[in-house]
Amino acid sequence: MSDTRDRAGAAGVAVAGVIFKIALYVCVVVLLFWIGKSAYQFGHDVFNQEAMSPGEGQEVTVVISEDASLYKIAKTLQKKGLVKSAPVFYVQERLSTYHGKLQAGTYLLSTAYTPNRIMGILAGDDEQEGVSGS
């Protein structure tokens, strides 16, 4: 009788081990899927620049200080509702022709501007409109 109980216990442990492994594999697959989806979405946001509000948009005054870092500028733009995500804007600026050219000043920007246009204005690109003063 003890032998039967031992075999039943061992079988239960084996079944529990298999169930645990299956649950672990499912969790790993879900995690990998989530990481892949997040990475794809981030890349899509970086390369698919869209204005926050298409059409007329809303004008917003932004002040960029002399000592502002790129990430601080990106956070300011996000807080003002001009860009969707500060990390995305940070990467967009790093990959753009405006990299390292953003200037301090006071700017009148619109929520209808794309991130690239905002970068152009902040870099002093004469072809861009919207600068209210420097």
How would you sum up this structure, described in words?
- It is a single chain.
- This protein is mainly alpha-helical.
- Helix content is 55%, strand content 9%.
- It contains four helices and two strands.
- The protein has helices at 2-47, 70-79, 86-95, 115-122, and strands at 59-64, 105-110.
- The chain has a two-stranded antiparallel ribbon.
- The chain starts with a helix and ends in a 12-residue tail after the last helix.
Strand portion: 5-15%
How do the strands of the widest beta sheet line up side by side?
1-2
Whole-number total of structural domains? 2
Structural category: mainly alpha
Largest sheet descriptor: 2 strands, antiparallel
Order of helices and strands: HEHHEH
**What do we call the CATH topology of the largest domain?**
Dna Ligase, domain 1
Helix content: 55-70%
Second-tier CATH architecture of the largest domain = 2-Layer Sandwich
Could you say which overall geometry the principal axes of the C-alpha atoms support?
Answer: rod-shaped
Task: Please report the distance between the alpha carbons of the first and last residues.
Answer: 90 Å
Mean pLDDT over all positions: 88
Spans where pLDDT lies below 50 across 5 or more residues: none
What is the radius of gyration computed over CA atoms, rounded to a whole number of angstroms? 26 Å
Q: By CATH's scheme, which homologous superfamily of the largest domain applies?
A: Endolytic murein transglycosylase
**For this structure, what is the CATH class of the largest domain?**
Alpha Beta
- Number of DSSP E strands: 2
H/I helix tally: 4
